[in-house]
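Exercise 7. Given the encoded structure of a 206-residue chain, write a plausible sequence.
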């Protein structure tokens, strides 16, 4: 099994990446860099954030032949001009998802989208892939699964091979991982990297 080191402090993201990549033959292992602060640049584009993190993490890879994954995401709300967007982690820590609900108050303009950028370092090259999940901010928080803004995000129905899928108004925190994955920005971003991983030579670690 190939090892993909995933540099993140977010256990929810690791769970989702494992769920997506393990059945395809990749061993996703969380890379936690002890004693070194990996800074998150306050850039306007998630791609810049992901690339910066990859560059900072490369020296800490157990082997330069291993694959390294970073992923950056944010929730962009239309009526708030894209806020919290690249400030999502800070917004979650400070105002929380209840703060987001308060900002929207009773507004009917609740459309938003999760964006994810996954960046993969492999054999000396960086590959970048994006995923978007459109949806809306719920009127109130609901559900215990998931993480981050999941309790207030309801994905829009999607069509796959002519069949419509919907969470029937449930938030991401109300559905299990398999169902979230059908709609998920993270899954879409990872899908863009799977072919590259499949075509690569086996890494030295596993
Ligand atoms: P980051 O990519 O870890 O910087 O994520 C930014 C913020 O968005 C964090 O507070 C995450 O908890 C939140 N976030 C990222 N992805 C998701 C998701 O799939 N569901 C809910 N919140 C998310």
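Solution.
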């Amino acid at each position: 099994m190939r090892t993909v080191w995933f540099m993140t402090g977010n256990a929810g993201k690791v769970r989702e990446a494992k769920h997506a990549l393990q059945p395809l033959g990749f061993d996703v292992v969380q890379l936690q860099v002890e004693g070194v602060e990996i800074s998150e640049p306050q850039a306007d584009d998630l791609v810049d954030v992901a690339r910066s993190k990859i560059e900072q993490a490369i020296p800490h890879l157990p082997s330069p032949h291993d694959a390294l994954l970073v992923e950056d995401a944010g929730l962009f709300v239309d009526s708030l001009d894209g806020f919290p967007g690249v400030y999502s982690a800070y917004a979650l820590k400070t105002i929380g998802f209840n703060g987001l609900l308060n900002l929207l108050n009773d507004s009917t303009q609740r459309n938003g989208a999760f964006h994810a950028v996954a960046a993969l370092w492999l054999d000396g090259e960086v590959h970048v892939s994006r995923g978007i999940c459109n949806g809306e901010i719920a009127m109130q928080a609901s559900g215990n699964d998931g993480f981050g803004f999941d309790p207030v995000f309801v994905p829009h129905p999607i069509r796959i091979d002519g069949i419509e899928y919907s969470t029937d108004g449930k938030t991401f925190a109300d559905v299990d991982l398999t169902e979230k994955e059908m709609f998920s920005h993270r899954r879409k971003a990872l899908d863009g990297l799977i072919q590259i991983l499949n075509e690569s030579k086996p890494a030295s670690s596993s």
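Remark. Residues 185-199 form the longest helix (15 residues). Students should compare their own answers with the one above.
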